[in-house]
Amino acid sequence: MFDQVSTHYDRTNAVLSVGNAALWRLQATRAVNPQAGERILDIAAGTGTSSVALTHTGAHVVAADFSAGMIKVGRERHAGNPLIEFVQADATALPFADNEFDAVTISFGLRNVVEPRKALAEFFRVTKPGGRVVICEFSTPPNPVIRGAYFAYLNQVMPRVVKLASSNAEAYDYLGESIAAWPTQPVLSGWLRDVGYESVAYKNLTLGIVALHRGVKAAPAAVPAD
């Protein structure tokens, strides 16, 4: 499905989010706080839009995605950026060593993983001790009025917009259903704690339509000198 929409994926996202997609990704980049020389894993990176922002401070980014079509477009689009490496990968079986990355991040992709809790365990495995995870994902607005209006948009307005903006409108049929079925912010926070992350917190963006989740993999305790 993602192979089929890869060509116009970024444009469609911008239209469907009424321009907010860029702002949400900016918030995610700030939460990751990439530093020069760090090695960062950007999962479900798609065409590399989020990955590019992470390289601006000198971090090396591995842009991983399950879709070969997305990876192909990303490699072509960012061929001149030596700080991005594109890798086709399954989020539930990452082809990386334990404790390899200073930060692991995923934006609007965890919801598309069949076994998200298994993916979170993989994120934890490849995060270095002292490293962090940042997840940016559609969520549940806590205000019932906002929540009702939002789901009305997903079910009634968005399908019509998709027909105009996407290269394959049928591929987006799942979107509203997947967002409605996604767990609330406290539940996702609990999943992060379950796999081992500490200092877990979340921040609502755009009235809770999107939420940023963060956690840290604890560094090993110092061994006292004899």
UniProtKB/TrEMBL annotation:
The keyword Transferase applies. Pathway: Quinol/quinone metabolism; menaquinone biosynthesis; menaquinol from 1,4-dihydroxy-2-naphthoate: step 2/2. Keywords: Menaquinone biosynthesis, Methyltransferase, S-adenosyl-L-methionine, Transferase. Transmembrane segments: none annotated. Pfam families: Ubie_methyltran. CDD domains: AdoMet_MTases (cd02440). One of its GO terms (molecular function) is methyltransferase activity. S-adenosyl-L-methionine binds at residues 47, 65, 90-91, 107. It catalyses: a 2-demethylmenaquinol + S-adenosyl-L-methionine = a menaquinol + S-adenosyl-L-homocysteine + H(+). The keyword Methyltransferase applies. It is an enzyme of class 2 (transferase). InterPro entries: SAM-dependent_MTases_sf (IPR029063), UbiE/COQ5_MeTrFase (IPR004033), UbiE/COQ5_MeTrFase_CS (IPR023576). Its EC number is 2.1.1.163. GO terms for biological process: methylation. PANTHER family: 2-METHOXY-6-POLYPRENYL-1,4-BENZOQUINOL METHYLASE, MITOCHONDRIAL, METHYLTRANSFERASE. Belongs to the class I-like SAM-binding methyltransferase superfamily. MenG/UbiE family. Methyltransferase required for the conversion of demethylmenaquinol (DMKH2) to menaquinol (MKH2). This is Demethylmenaquinone methyltransferase. The lineage of its organism: Bacteria, Bacillati, Actinomycetota, Actinomycetes, Micrococcales.
